[in-house]
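Help: read this over?
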Amino acid sequence: MEKKPVGTGLKALKQIEAEVVAEGREWTRRLLEERLKMIAEKSGDVSPPLDGQRIERRVRREVVLQTTVGEVRVEAWYGRRRSDGQWIYPLKEVWELGSPGDPESRVEGPLGPYHQPDRHV
């Protein structure tokens, strides 16, 4: 029987534990992303909670959320709110993720948190 150096088993255990934790984190991230995508689909393009109107000149955009379990990508509506003309992601308002220029905002679109789309629906 071959002798192993002292500590080899412990190192292997730490490595295995790290791999399992990483796999669990990725499983959690995927589950979160799946659930958030379902919510995003159901929320539609209505600007809550103040006016409840559909946004104008709307387009679907990928939104990147930095979460505690990693980056999550969700497709959401982006457009101009009729009541005040601001360009918004209604979903961002539903999830209370901050406003333009808010350092606490954790949502980023392809060109930053708020931008005018180049194509309209």
Strands lie at 46-47, 53-54, 56-67, 70-80, 87-88, 107-108. The mean pLDDT is 74. Residues 8-108 form one domain.
